[in-house]
Amino acid sequence: MMKAWPLHAVGDIRMEIRPKPVPGPGEVLLRVRACGICGSDIPRVFSKGTYSFPTVPGHEFAGSIEAVGESVDESLIGRGAAVFPLLPCRACSACEIGQFALCENYDYIGSRRDGAFAEYIAVPVWNLLLLPDGVSYEEAAMVEPAAVAVHALRQAGVGIGDTVLIYGAGPIGLMIAQWAEAWGAGRVLLIDIEDEKLAFAQSRGFAHTCNAATDDVPAWVRGLTNGRRADVTIEGAGSSAALENAMHTTRPFGKVVLMGNPSGDMKLTKDGYWNILRKNLTVVGSWNSYYANVPVNEWRLTLDFIASGKLRLEPLITHRVPIEGIGSALQMMRDRSSFSVKVMYCAH
Ligand SMILES: [Zn+2]
Ligand SMILES: [Zn+2]
Question: Which residues surround ligand 1, an ion (CB under 5 A)?
Answer without folding.
Answer: 38
